[in-house]
Structure formats: C-alpha cells, structure tokens
Amino acid sequence: MRPFAYERAADARSAVAARAAGAADGAGAVYLGGGTNLVDLMRLGVVSPGVLVDVTRLPSDGVEETAGGGLLIGAAMRNSDLAAHPLVRRRYPMLTQAVVAGASGQIRNMATVGGNLLQRTRCSYFQDVTKPCNKRAPGSGCPARNGDHRNLAVIGQSEACVATHPSDMAVPLAALGAVVHIEGPGGARQVPMPGLHRLPGDTPERDTVLEPGDLITAVELPPLPFAARSRYRKVRDRASFAFAVVSVAAALDVEDGMVKDCRIALGGVAHIPWRAERAESALRGSPATEAAFAQAAAEELAQATPLPHNAFKVPLARNVVVRTLLDLVEAS
Amino acid sequence: MTTVAAPYAGTALDRVDGPEKVTGRARYAYEHAPDDLAYAVVVQSTIARGEVRAVDADSVLQLPGIIATIWHENAPRVAPIEDAELTVLQSPRVAYRGQVVAVVVAETIESATEAARLLRVDYQVEPHDVELRADHPGMYRPDHVNPDYATDSELGDPEAALGYAPVVVDATYSTPAQHHNPIEPHATVALWDADGLTLYDSTQSASAVRATIAPLFGLPQERVRVVSPYVGGGFGSKGAPHAQVVLAALAAKQVGRPVKLAATRRQMFAVTGYRTPTVQRVRLGADEDGRLSAIVHEAFEQTATVKEFAEQTTVVTRMMYAAPHRRTSHRLVRLDVPVPTWMRAPGETPGMFALESAMDELAVACGIDPVELRVRNEPTVDPERGLPFSSRNLVACLREGAARFGWAGRDPEPGVRRRGRMLIGTGVASSTYPVYRLPSEATARAEPGGGFTVRIAAADIGTGARTVLTQIAADALGVPPAQVRMEVGDSALPRASVAGGSSGTASWGTAVVRACEALTDALHRRAGDVPPGGLEASVDTAEELRAQRPFSRHAYGAQFAEVGVDVDTGEVRVLRLLGAFAAGRIINPKTARSQFIGGMTMGLSMALFEESVMDVEFGDYLNRDLAQYHVAACADVRDVDAFWIEEEDPDLNPMGSKGIGEIGIVGTAAAVANAVHHATGLRVRDLPIRLDRLIGRAV
Amino acid sequence: MNGEGNSGPVFADPITADIMLSVNGDEHSVAVDTRETLLDTLREHLDLIGAKKGCDHGQCGACTVLVDGRRVKSCLTLTVTVDDREITTVEGLAADGALHPMQAAFVERDAFQCGYCTPGQLCSAVAVVREVADGWPSAVTPDVSGPVSLDDDEIRERMSGNLCRCGAYVNIVAAIRQVGA
Ligand SMILES: Cc1cc2nc3c(=O)[nH]c(=O)nc-3n(C[C@H](O)[C@H](O)[C@H](O)COP(=O)(O)OP(=O)(O)OC[C@H]3O[C@@H](n4cnc5c(N)ncnc54)[C@H](O)[C@@H]3O)c2cc1C
Ligand code: SF4
Ligand code: FES
Ligand code: FES
C-alpha cells in the first residue's frame, strides 16, 4: 500500500473540499467509508490513493422520514443500522433482507450506505494487478471473456467488460427507484436509481455516473406502500457469506388476483443492479399467476447474452423471479 | 501385544491447552517477537514458465525502511538438495506462476509490502502448459505413489471379467484441485545467533523441519532448533517444510537480524501445496446380486516440474471390496504448476469419492440397497495383499450407522421426495484409512518435587495431541493427568514423527507409554525414591515398530447424508450427516468426536464448494482467496454427528488406537453426491456439486 | 472511484500519526503509519496477539474485535480511524484470570481445535448474543419486521463471517446456544 494522508471530515462541504485539495496535490484523493472495499483494494494494489478523506463521521448517518411516507437514509449510516431500523424493516422489508444477506455481521457493522453503493466488482482479474483488465487498466483487455466468467454478467455487458456489480443492497434500491443525493465540487444534485450505475460499454473503468469528487450524502427511498410486502431472494454458492450468483428484489401489489403494480430488480446478472422494466410492464394489469410470472421473466431475460460458463444464470434468474413473485402472492 | 490398564484413556478430558487458546495467550509462530526484528515479504513470479532476467533491487532500496531485496543473484547459497521446492532463490528458472522470485526485508510490514508491490522483475517468458487432461501426451507411470505404494496392481483378468459380467458400471469422475487453507497462514520467524538457527515455525513436525533445514544451511542438526508450540491447522500443508521456512532463514542470514515471514492467503495458493486434481475411471463388474467380479480403478493426476508428488488415489481400492479380478493404476503428468502435496487423507479422499460413487451406481443398476451391496462385497482377508485384517468393522459401521440414521425402509426411487421447495435424498458411502505408525522418541521424567514431565517433539495442530498424550502418560504412570506436564512442539525435545497420516497418537503414544514404563521400572528399582536431580527415562520405538507383525491394519467408517436440493435454484444443502466409525480404542471421546466431525465438515465442504480454478491463460489458480475459494461456513454445517463402535484390536499399539484425524473426510463427498442422486435423479460425477451442475439439467 | 484514486508507482515516505488508542480499558500512545491496520497495530506493536490474521482481506473473521462494543474486522480497519473508540479484544473479554462465560463454554463444548479462529469466534459470539438481544434481524429471520430469537439457524447464519477450517462449527453453535439461551 502506498503511503497516504488521512483526513477526517466533519461535514459534507469540508469533505468535498478536502478531497479537492488532495486531488489538486496530484496525490489522488478518495473518500473512505467503512473501508471494507477500499482498504481491501488498496492492499491488492488495485487503487493507490495519496489521500483518504474519512466520511464516516458526517452527520448524515441516520434515517429521517420524508413527507408522504418515504425515508431519507444518511450515506454514512452503517449497513447493520440500516437493516435493523424499524421503519426500514416495516416499510421496505426487501431492503433489510438484502442488506443482511450481504457479507457478514462484522462487515455490515463497518460498511456504510455510500460505500456499499460504490463497491467495485469481484471479477478476479480486476483484483489481480498482474493480469490485464479493462476496468482496472483501460485498454489492457478483458481476459474474463475467454477465461473465468462463471459469476459475471449475462445482460448488458460489452466486448470490453463482462463484470457484475456485487452489491445486494443496491438491488432493492434499484427496484424502489431510490434517489441518490450527491454533493459535488459543482454543488448538489440527485440521481435516481438505477441510473447511478452504468453499463460498461467502451469505458468499463467508470462504474457510475459520478464525477471525481462527488460525495454521496444520502439515499432517499420514495414512498411505496406496497413495498411493505416485498422480498429479496439471494442465490449463492454457499449458505452464507458469499456474493450473489443471482438475486431478486421484488415488491408486488395484487388486487383481486391481478397485479396492480410491481417492482422487480435483479442482482448478479449485470454491471448494474438490473431493474427488470420489461417484466414489470408485462405484469402490470396481468393476472398474478405462475404462467404470467414466467412469461414476464422470459420477456426480461430475452435480452440476455450469456457467455459459455454462465448461461446457467438465465434459467436460474427466471426461476428465482417466478418463485419470489409466487412467494409474495402466497404470503398475502 | 498387550494393552495397558487405562483409567484415563476413554475419558472426556477438556483440552489441556483450552484456556490458553480461548484467552488469546497461545502464541503461534508469527507471534514470536525477538528483539530487532525485521519483516520479510515475498515477491512471486507473474509468469508460469521461463527465467528471471533481472530484478530492479536498487530502486526499491531507495524506499524508506527497506533493508534488503534478495533474489537469486544475491541470495545466500544453500546446499543443492534434491527437493527443488526448497532450494529457493538459487536459480533464474521459473517453474510455475507464483513461485518466489524475490524477498524484500524492511523495518515494518507496511514498508516491506509496499516495496514488494513495487519491485520490478523482468522475465524471459516461455509457453506454459497447466491443463490436466487424462489424454495428455505427457502422462507417465511414476515409480511409486505416495508414500511408497506400488504404482499399479493387477490380479486375475479384469478385462475379461468385465466382458462377461452381467452388470457393468463404467464411469469417469473428477475432483478439482483443492487447497488446505488452514486459517493460520504458513509463517516463520528466523533467528541466527551463536548457537545456530532458531525457527519459530508453523509446522506439523518440528523434527522434520529441523532435519530438512539443517543440511540446507550446512548445519549439524543440533544447531537448528524449531519451535512450534501452537499451530493453526495444517491438514497436510504444514507436513513438510515449504519455501517460507527457507526464505525466512535466508533473509535473516542476509540481513543479520531476526526476520518474520508469513505467506499471505493469496500466496498460499501457490507456495504451500494443494491436492492434485484427478480424473478417475472406475469400472465395476458384478452379477445381478451385486457380487463384484471385477474392479478397475485408473487415476490421472498432475504434478509439478520441480518436484514429483504422486497421490495414491486408487490404492484404497486395493483393499476395500472383494473381487477376484482387479486392477488399479496411477498416471501423472508434469505441468508448469505449483507443487501438490498431502492434503487430509491423500489418496483416500479423491479415490473414495470415485469408488463409492461407482458403488452407488452399481447399487442402482442392480436394484440393491447400497448398504447391503457393500456388506455383500465384504472381503475376509485383504484382497490384494492376502493378509488378515487386524480388525475390520466396516459392516458394523454400516449396520449400526444405518440404524441410527433411520435408513431402514428407504425408498430407492430417485427424485420423488419433496419437502416444500426441496427435493430430499439420502446417501451412504464407506470410509477407511490405513493405520500408520512411525518411529519416535520420548522422555519421561519424575520431578523431585513430585509430578512428571513427559517430552516429545510431537505437534498439536488442533488434534488434541497434547491432551491425549497427557492421558496416555497418566495411565502409563498410574497417576492422574493433573500430575503430568506434557511438553510438545519443539525440536529440542525427543525426536518425533510428523502429525500426519493419522499416525500421531499411535506413534507418539507408543513412545510415551514406553518411556513412562521405563521410568516406572527405574522408580521401582529405587523403591520410589526420586533423586534430587529428578529421574529420567528415554526410549526410541524404532525397534519395536520393526518387530510389528504383518497385518492389514485400517480404520473403517460409514457416512450417511441427507440432502435437500432446491428445485428452483439447484442449491444443495446438507441437512444431516452421520458418521459411524470403527477406529480402535478412542482415548478422548470429546476431542475424538471433534476430529471426526471436523473431517466430515471438510468433506461436506469438498462435496459442495471447494475448487481451485486453474487460469489456463496465465497459469495460476484464479480464485486465490477465501471469498472465492469457498470453504464451508457455519451456516452450511447443520446436523453433523459422529459415533463409534467399540473395537478391541490387540495388534496395533499399547493404546489399542487407530488414527482418527483423516477418516472423517473420506467418503463424505460420495455420501453427499449419492444423496443428491437420490434426491434428484442426477448423478454428479465432477466435484464440487454446485448449483450450475444441477440447474441446467432436470431440477 | 473510477480510476481517479491511482497515481502510479510513487516512492513516498510513510506518513505517521501520533494517536491514543484505548484497548481493553488501557490507553496506549502510539505512532502509527496511516497504512497500519488495527490488526497489525495490536499484534505487532502492542503484543496483543489474540486477534489473528487469517486472510487480511475481511474474508475469514479471525481478526474480529469489538469497537465500541460492535464486532468488526480489524484487518480492514485502519488504526488511525479508531483513535476515539474503545477497542475490546479477546484478551479483554473477561476480567483478570477468570474466563468469560463464552470462553468457558467454548472449552467445555470443545468448540475449537487448532484455536486459531477461536479469538475471532469468541468476539463474534459475544456480539451475536447482544445483536439478538437488540432485536437485529438476520438473513434467516422469517419475518424481518418481527422479533428475533437466538435459535440454531440464527446462530449459524450470524456466525458465518468466522470461518473455522478445523470444522468446529457444530460445537461452536452448541457453546453459543448454551450461553445465549
Ligand atoms: C469478504 C467480503 C464479503 C462481502 N460480501 C458481500 C455480499 O455478499 N454482498 C454485498 O453486497 N457486499 C459484500 N461485500 C462488500 C461490502 O458490502 C462492501 O465492501 C461495503 O458495502 C462497502 O462499504 P464501505 O463503507 O466499507 O466502503 P469503502 O470501502 O469505504 O468505500 C467503497 C468505495 O466507495 C467510496 N465511497 C465511500 N463512501 C462514499 C461516499 N459517501 N460518497 C462517495 N464515495 C464514497 C470509496 O471511495 C470507495 O471507492 C463483501 C465484502 C467483503 C470484504
Ligand atoms: S470483466 Fe471487466 S472487470 Fe473483469 S477482467 Fe474483464 S474488464 Fe476487467
Ligand atoms: S484476517 Fe481479517 S477477516 Fe481474515
Ligand atoms: S479451530 Fe482451527 S480454524 Fe477453527
């Protein structure tokens, strides 16, 4: 790890200023959340910043209610506090389920909401600085395409990169259309999910639409009463403490056997938490039956372009979407 | 041979080192901190084959706190011993990706790590070959297989017998490379002084490390001391010294200061050994009643170019079941890969996955209950060696295990039991492990102030050896365990064999008993009077072991598994695992049960998760960490239990014990795979049984 | 993010900070390299060897300690970030000489073999009992908006961040059940 200066910011403005000052020095300055991804990647030599600006002590570390029944979550809030919050558990159970399905108790005590959203891919070539990788070293190539890609993307990937976004938490946030609040060198702005993350295209080195120095200050959950009946299902290679192979976050509003509204997003399948818009629109107004769910899932997954070793994710994702929706119907 | 009266053997004594371990006081290798310590970090090759042309040692030396950069041009020379895994930094050759090409020594870990990261190494690259295939043209017949078994064996005319057998199973199985991954990484603290070389090392055998390292540095054995009071697991990877010991000693010599060096978890995937992947073809010929007429078991494995390790994968098939016609063989290919080594039950573990899966296929083909099929093929003498068994209670394990597991009335039909969204199935497999006993020495001493001290350079890597030897000594001395102080884990103690091959208790226990007997005799002669300087007796068991009568000596077991397979996702969960074992006298039921279920847990992990994935393009194992190389986590291990059958075997050793450290893993993976077949109707012949091997098929 | 955190190989001097560290109730004044992790500070500078290094990447749990009573992985915690926190390691779980009930239960249930994962398991176990008492849900809690209880499934899920290669899980769960129930 390269030597770095450490600064602790007391509020968003000073964090942005401290980062800008570090960057101006040419040192390469980044925000430090819980460090569970950043410190890991620094130790691997994947990133080597000269300045760390600690943003875990920012005042925005709790949950506030918004008008209309939504919630505003501070970016510095720890994952375990988010998951345990009574309002989150009641209004958005799939968010609690997704957060507690991720990592381990220790990591969730450290990880922040902002850091979780911005964690980087687990592609093993990305983590190995002795090998090429377009995301880490633009233009060097993508060995995963012909090499190991069993747990990489099946939708929306590019020639340049087939990585997946590993966050569980981001999947229900994408389903909910959560709004990310950003404080940047040029002022404040807001980006609705899933628009924060981007598909790799020709520039896989950019995971998100954030500009250098942009600080996430909060995530706003819009009011969505039917999300009180929502569910996160994570499929993984071992029973716990493993990243998703495929996951689904879904909320379902059923009336008289018909789907009034629904939200569905997939994890583990794309460079972004994948909002299943096609499936959602196929379902709105259709009967809440297994056949309709299967049809909707098939429409969504028709876009899939799997690679040789991850084609299994397509039937897997289909099954999990159908099963999760059926579980929601059965639970009602 | 007679067994001694033993009031303490068989009691569930708590681990004598338990309080040390739960309070954090137990000091493991890397935690020894002599004064003036420096930190060493290893640099690994980034090519799989070729030569190191240059190392830009000078530029990292400019970094603050860097003491030395050591590579083949400036490294101290070591004696040219045969084991090229250990003659590190002596030549420019690179034989596998991840081989050590340099070591950086610095004042702090942070500086050493950073310098290692920045060190530039230039290579001349040659094309590599890292892919194991059964039809690889480089396949050859090794001279023998580990440790010294015949490479091949044949009896009768197996091909002809297969030709006329009414029922034939012919299937090819594969097991992937697996890494031991003890939670304590391999570490050494090396210290040179006027007395010679001291190594605080994480090892399964202080005596073996000393015996190997001393000649490398041209030292007599007495000038090397290896200290390893606590070892954080080994599973074979710490059975023989690996590069890190030599590197620490080299670095300490070069910089003239004590040096600490640990392999990182990622580095361990290249430099501390692993289990070879295997491809195995098994052919069974039987009559309609399932009686075997022929067994053929052929294994294809890899080894490294720097050192041969030939895993004895099919040796177990030579003694498992009766059949007049039989053949086993091993073929190896030398690839540009890291050096494979022993890993928990080398040979039996992959071999029994294949054999016991094939037996299940035969049971299905014959329509016979798989427990019954095994009972039917029970031999009366060792089928290939013709020797009598010293004791063999496989049938009792199968029967008693079946009774406790609730096997009776099992519907053999696959794919028909549902519990919620899960398909449920049960499976069985046999296990076995040979009884090894190796020569060791021990000293027993009556202390003038009362109490006894027993010394032997044994290793307690978590097996409970310290505790069990205390019980054995207490019995042999006729005193309560509290009066015995057991000293292990130091090469300055009487020389002991390795904690490997499940031979520890048998080998060390024999020496401890004999030393205690000799001391008791000496005390008798003095009418119990302990002189002011204490009274000591020492023994060497080499002669006693040579006089051992010829028998086929093995422990046996039967593993029963119940699995649930998610119909939507193909996720497999092991719901229940029960092991029945017959392993001679159990000396400590508490630690023994831990050993059995620990082995079974590793078997479960092997069945469902473990696979080191070779990166064919770059030539290393890709998933080099514990987030990608999955081992079973707490949530994966539900109802796992073991019990044992009382077994009296007078032809073993003074304790009447067989080894228990490895048998728990043997057969577990087959039991799980057989249960998955029963649950789903799908036969998974390639480990691990991951969801992608099920989801695309019928589930 | 997005590559901006990289500035090529630089041969820079270490940057140090003088901080106070409160561990097991003792105040230590230490000069730390900003790169130093809490795990390395404890082990290499304070000779508190209870926390173990198993992977150094947050993947095994051997380094688990409590920071302000919450379990964290000390291998991913930079020491400079915890100067205002109270740190508890396995050495500080119990008062002098005695064993914490969880430590005693681990010995009684033989909840370890090699003992290397054990300090991390113990710190985690103590924290798990508290997390359940505080009503925190887990991935196996049937209804996350409802109450939680410490059954075997909950223990297994919550302890999954602590790998034990010796395979002592069955006994670890039994020990925690004994103390937590
Ligand atoms: C062994 C292991 C297993 C894991 N398993 C899972 C899993 O199963 N599921 C899962 O979802 N995740 C998993 N994770 C990942 C974990 O969830 C993330 O590491 C964590 O959420 C990141 O949060 P952090 O606060 O620690 O981020 P940091 O590591 O501090 O930061 C991550 C990135 O975000 C940036 N950043 C942090 N905060 C801000 C902010 N406010 N504004 C702008 N930028 C910011 C940092 O500069 C950095 O680039 C696992 C991690 C480990 C180590
Ligand atoms: S998939 Fe993306 S992250 Fe992985 S190697 Fe290719 S470019 Fe790099
Ligand atoms: S050493 Fe920290 S989790 Fe492994
Ligand atoms: S006791 Fe050895 S790793 Fe857990």
Helix/strand structural class of chain C: alpha+beta
Order of helices and strands of chain A: EHEHEEEHHHHHHEEEEEEEHHH
Uncertain segments of chain C: 1-5
The string of secondary-structure elements of chain C, in order, is EEHEEEHHHH
CATH H-tier superfamily of the largest domain in chain C: [2Fe-2S]-binding domain
CATH architectural group of the largest domain in chain A: 2-Layer Sandwich
Number of strand segments of chain A: 12
What is the approximate shape of chain A?
Answer: globular
Percentage of residues in helical conformation of chain A: 25-40%
**What is the gyration radius of chain A calculated from CA atoms?**
20 Å
Most extensive interface, chain pair and sizes: B-C, 70 and 63 residues
Give the number of domains of chain C.
2
How confident overall, as mean pLDDT of chain A?
97
CATH class of the largest domain in chain C: Mainly Alpha
As a whole number of angstroms, the C-alpha radius of gyration of chain C is 18 Å
* Gap from first CA to last CA of chain C: 45 Å
Largest sheet of chain C: 5 strands, mixed
Biggest sheet, spatial arrangement of strands of chain A: 4-5-8-6-7
Low-confidence stretches of chain A: none
Major sheet of chain A: size, sense and barrel closure? 5 strands, antiparallel
Secondary structure topology:
The complex is a heterotrimer of chains A (332), B (699) and C (181).
Chain A (H helix, E strand, L loop, with lengths): L4 E4 L3 H13 L4 E4 L5 H6 L7 E4 L8 E3 L5 E4 L4 H6 L1 H6 L1 H9 L3 H6 L2 H5 L52 H7 L2 E6 L2 E6 L22 E7 L8 E7 L7 E12 L2 E10 L6 E2 L1 H7 L6 H12 L11 H19 L1
Parallel strand pairs in A: 1-3, 2-3
Antiparallel strand pairs in A: 4-5, 5-8, 6-7, 6-8, 9-10, 10-11, 11-12
Helix pairs in contact in A: 9-10, 10-11
Chain B lengths: L17 H6 L14 E7 L5 E6 L1 H5 L4 E6 L21 E2 L5 E7 L2 H10 L2 E5 L18 E2 L3 E2 L2 E3 L2 H7 L2 E9 L11 E7 L2 E6 L4 H11 L7 E4 L15 H13 L3 E4 L2 H7 L6 E9 L5 E13 L20 E11 L12 H19 L3 H7 L12 E3 L2 H12 L12 E2 L2 E13 L6 E6 L5 E4 L9 H13 L6 E4 L16 H22 L9 E6 L1 H5 L5 E15 L5 E11 L6 H20 L5 E2 L4 E2 L17 E6 L23 H13 L11 H4 L4
Parallel strand pairs in B: 1-14, 12-13, 16-17, 18-25, 22-23, 26-29
Antiparallel strand pairs in B: 1-5, 2-4, 2-6, 3-5, 7-8, 9-17, 10-15, 11-12, 11-14, 15-16, 19-20, 20-25, 21-22, 21-24, 25-26, 27-28
Helix pairs in contact in B: 8-15, 11-12, 14-15
Chain C lengths: L15 E8 L2 E8 L4 H8 L18 E4 L2 E4 L12 E3 L12 H8 L9 H16 L18 H7 L10 H12 L1
Parallel strand pairs in C: 1-5
Antiparallel strand pairs in C: 1-2, 3-4, 3-5
Helix pairs in contact in C: 2-5, 3-5
Bound molecules: flavin-adenine dinucleotide (FAD), iron/sulfur cluster and FE2/S2 (inorganic) cluster (2 copies).
